[in-house]
Amino acid sequence: MNARNRVRTLEVMLCSKMKQKSLLTSLAVPFLAVVVLGLSNSRAETSKELIDFKKDPKVKMGITDDGVMGGLSKGQMKISEEGNLLFSGTLSLQNNGGFSSLRMDIGKWNLEGWQGIEVKVKGDGRTYDLRVTTDERFRRSPISFRGKISTEKGKWTTVKVSFSELKGGWRGMTLKNEFDPAKIETIGITVADKKEGLFELEVESIKAWK
User: Fold this and answer.
1) Angle CA(44)–CA(188)–CA(120) in degrees, nearest 5?
2) 142 - beta bridge partners?
3) C-alpha to C-alpha distance for 116 and 97, rounded to whole angstroms
4) How many CB atoms within 10 Å of residue 177?
5) Which of 4, 114, 115, 209 has the fewest CB atoms in 10 Å of its CB?
6) DSSP conformation letters of 7-21
7) pTM of the entire predicted model
8) Cα–Cα distance for residue pair 145/9, rounded to 1 Å
């Protein structure tokens, strides 16, 4: 092979390698874009804020104590300077009492496809109940679907309550009604651990999770 032919052969080989590199690059860029977009969407869909105490003035909240049944427990609520919800008071077992309940309502939530509700709280070591109502009724009253929120005194903890854990009940009765996450009407927190004395729970966020 003379020098001219060798030069032409090298030019062909170099050109071929450059085309291969260009093809790989053109395939890799859209692939990476799809991967990044997929990861971004995945992160965005793993949680959904349900109530923002700092920004949502439309949240309707109310307290129901065992006084409706003759009890002496007293609960109260307020929004702290940090924008967190404070639920506190005194639990009494006198007169067959023993509960205080906070209810939050901003309309209806459709959480079909989500796994449960996540709350970030700082508590007092007590165990609280997460209470969720839907359009399910018993004797024309809403059925409460309940799950547990365990707290550590003075520490922030994130508690996930799966929808599959929620058990239906009405005034102490256990019911077998099915929970439908597509028809959530209210979300609440109740203290009813049969321990007299002060209670205090600070709530930073309430979210849906997958």
Assistant:
1) 45
2) 137
3) 30
4) 15
5) 4
6) HHHHHHHHHHHHHHH
7) 0.77
8) 78
Shortest CA distance to 134 belongs to which of 182, 193, 95? Answer: 182
pLDDT for position 37: 45
One domain for residues 11 and 97:
no
- Whole-number pLDDT of residue 68: 87
Residues 39, 105, single domain; the answer is no
Tell me the mean pLDDT per 10 residues along the chain, length 210: 52 54 51 44 73 80 93 96 96 96 91 97 98 96 97 97 96 93 97 97 96
Domain containing residue 99? 48-209
Which residue in 203, 175, 200 sits closest to 187, CA to CA? 203
| Residue 6 CB contacts under 8 Å (≥ 6 apart), including other chains | none
φ/ψ bin of 53: left (φ > 0), alpha (ψ from -120 to 50), beta (otherwise):
alpha
- Asked if 34 and 52 sit in the same domain, the reply is no
Contact 138/108 with Cβ under 8 angstroms?
no
Task: Identify the CA nearest to 126 among candidates 87, 169, 96, 171.
Answer: 87
Claim to verify: residue 67 and residue 127 sit in the same structural domain? yes
Whole-number Å distance between alpha carbons of 57 and 59:
6
Q: How far apart are CA 67 and CA 98, in angstroms?
A: 9
**Residues 78, 173: one domain?**
yes
The amino acid that residue 28 corresponds to is A
End-to-end CA, the chain:
68
Model pLDDT, residue 4: 55
The CA distance from 140 to 186, in Å, is 16
DSSP-assigned letter for residue 29 = H
